[in-house]
Design a protein that fits this description.
The chain is α+β, with helices and mostly antiparallel strands and about 600 residues long. It is about 55% helix and about 15% strand. The protein has helices at about 25-30, 35-50, 50-75, 80-105, 205-225, 230-240, 250-260, 270-280, 290-305, 310-330, 330-350, 355-380, 385-410, 415-425, 430-445, 445-470, 485-500, 505-530, and strands at about 5-10, 20-25, 115-125, 130, 140-150, 150-160, 170-180, 185-200, 410-415, 475-480, 530-535, 540-545, 560-565, 575, 580-585, 590-595, 600-605.
């Protein structure tokens, strides 16, 4: 009875020494989940409709909630209205606080249209990310910065070298040109940097984080000079330990993405979960209270070292809640913790509400709460060691539950992603822990930190090898039309695999569901697959060129009327080389077709 989810066990009595088993109230599981979902929906509505949507949303849902509570009390004649108060009171508090938070932000937003040139001021809140220019010219790569300002979040793009002093935590003022209008009320869109007006100094935790980052990078440079690390493994180690992917070559990024490992190279909830599991293993003989204290302390140090970027805060919340569920074995503490985490993150950054990364984190954490413990038990029943079972349970569960969302948002499925994650998962806690130790030692002396980096090299090399092998072939990804239909199909496949393992009798029913889902998705792909990137060109002089193309190879390009680059990196619009030759990027699964009007189009193939 004590192990039943309907019951909970109180601590032993000081007088009798016996514990008492009492019924578990399911309302406690959802008392913060409902307010969190309410705030999430309200934030999405406000981001797209403004103050009008804020008033309408609260009026309708609060009214329906009160009406539903009144009907429930009247129908059931309940003598315990406090049970409904457990849900309604947090809901009302969240509604008022969320409305105030969003209401204070909205009046500061300004209207922006493409082509505007203005002075832009904000604080850099993420490490810069680099990506290639969409055409082979001598202007080099582009660097993206995310700025926080009273008017909303600003994406600032700089071509070529990074400006001096553009580090996380610095307040910058620049003259810029808008190239992409805002997508919601609290965004200012994308801007091309024209001139730097001023750069402020970093303070507080950002200053500490940047100093630690420089020390750790020096330690990795020493390891690279010792011929232990290559530029690629150096950049991978930096991504695996502190989430900085700016040094990764673009082919490597594409390979890791295709292999389903890109979440490991930009500190995610999985990295945090692996680190906490490692700590829990070291302290397995300690009391739960000491484990929790050690985990929280290490988590605070980790956030301070890596930097309080939005994605790091999101990862810290989701990873810690997932491990909480794994260790506790039931939902009583984990689900309210998840709800509190969602509320906290949406208060800090309302733009998370429309971020695919936030959705993936929430779904992955929910999956860990509901599925990690049963899978862990199943693995241990097969005589898998406890440490390895913990790691595999987190990795497999997170990958399975997020695969449908990957299909929905990006239209790609990693063919052997789950196998790649299983192969690297046991080493991730070691890499993360070694990185944290190396970062600490590098603060004393980068040469000492290089020793820890050297110790982590075999594990980093293994991750690189798995990512390269599983992500370099044309078979490494399945291309689907992004959207709900593809997500439903993938959900049916995942459900088939999971339920056939746990309940073989459902095989026939799920097979029928899978066939129907496949048929619907195939029809949708054939009917809805859009033709994109249409240009007027001569198909007889179409030439494929490498991606990305080094500037030194520009003179070697053969004459053509159209260049093709094979890459999974998205392209928003057709682009031209300096000589005026159009360039099309074709992800896997797209082919060239010629229309009756003579235009060449890149068309996504059906399933």
């Amino acid at each position: 009875m004590e192990n039943s989810p309907k019951y909970g066990t109180t601590p032993p009595s000081k007088t009798t020494g016996y514990s008492v088993t009492r019924p578990h109230n399911p309302i406690h599981d959802i008392r913060l989940i409902i307010p969190a979902l309410y705030l999430w929906g309200m934030t999405i509505t406000v981001l797209h409709t403004g103050v009008t949507g804020l008033i309408a949303y609260n009026a309708v849902l609060i009214g329906l909630s009160i009406l539903g509570a009144g009907i429930t009390l009247w129908k059931t004649r309940s003598a315990q209205p406090h049970k409904l108060a457990l849900i309604l009171l947090p809901l009302l508090i969240t509604s008022l606080a969320g409305s105030l938070n969003l209401g204070l932000r909205l009046p500061l937003a300004i209207q922006v249209t493409a082509g505007d040139v203005a002075e832009v001021k904000g604080k850099i809140i993420t490490r810069p990310t680099t990506y290639p220019t969409p055409y082979p010219n001598t202007r080099g790569e582009r660097t993206r910065y995310l700025l926080s300002s009273p008017q909303g979040e600003i994406t600032l793009i700089k071509r070529g070298e990074q400006p001096s002093g553009f580090v996380p935590g610095a307040t910058v003022t620049v003259l810029a040109k808008n190239i992409e209008p805002p997508t919601h009320q609290l965004s200012q869109g994308e801007w091309n940097l024209i001139t730097v007006r001023s750069v402020g100094k970093t303070r507080g935790v950002w200053r500490l984080s940047n100093a630690i980052y420089r020390r750790w990078d020096n330690a990795l440079n020493i390891a690279e000079q010792g011929k232990l690390y290559t530029p690629d493994t150096h950049a991978l180690a930096r991504g695996l330990t502190i989430g900085d992917t700016s040094g990764l070559s673009f082919p490597k990024r594409d390979a890791y993405r295709a292999a389903g490992l890109s979440h490991l190279t930009a500190v995610s909830g999985a990295n945090v979960a692996f680190l906490l599991i490692f700590v829990g293993t070291l302290l397995r003989h300690q009391t739960p209270r000491r484990k929790a204290a050690a985990s929280i302390s290490l988590l605070l140090v980790f956030v301070a070292v890596v930097g309080p970027e939005p994605s790091i805060l999101r990862a810290a919340v989701s990873g810690s809640v997932g491990v909480l569920a794994l260790y506790l074995g039931h939902r009583k503490q984990a689900l309210p913790a998840l709800g509190a985490g969602i509320i906290l993150l949406l208060f800090l950054r309302p733009s998370f509400a429309v971020s695919p990364g936030f959705v993936l984190s929430v779904v992955a954490t929910t999956g860990l709460i509901l599925g990690a413990r049963p899978l862990n038990t199943l693995l241990q029943a097969q005589h898998v060691p406890t440490y390895l079972a913990d790691i595999l349970a987190v990795s497999i569960t997170a990958h399975l539950v997020t695969t449908p969302l990957t299909a929905y948002f990006f239209g790609t499925i990693s063919t052997l992603g789950i196998i790649a994650n299983i192969l690297v998962a046991p080493l991730m806690p070691i890499i993360t822990a070694a990185g944290l130790i190396g970062i600490t030692l590098s603060c004393i002396n980068p040469l000492v930190g290089a020793v820890a980096a050297a110790a982590a090299w075999p594990a980093v090399r293994w991750v690189d090898l798995v990512g390269t092998i599983f992500g370099s072939g044309t078979w490494s990804q399945i291309i689907l039309p992004p959207g709900a239909v593809s997500a439903l199909l993938v959900t049916a496949v995942v459900a088939t695999v999971v339920l056939c393992v746990t309940a073989p009798k459902t095989l026939t029913m799920l097979a029928i569901l899978l066939v129907v889902g496949s048929g619907v998705t195939t029809w949708h792909a054939l009917a809805q697959a859009p033709a994109t990137h249409c240009l007027t060109a001569d198909p007889t002089t179409t030439v494929e060129i490498p991606y990305p193309l080094p500037a030194s190879q520009l003179a070697e390009l053969p004459p053509a009327t159209l260049y093709i680059q094979r890459t999974s990196t998205p392209q928003k619009r057709p682009i031209l080389t300096p000589n005026g030759i159009p360039v099309l990027r074709l992800p896997p699964g797209e082919t060239l077709t010629q229309g009756k009007d003579g235009r060449i189009c890149a068309t996504r193939m059906a399933l």
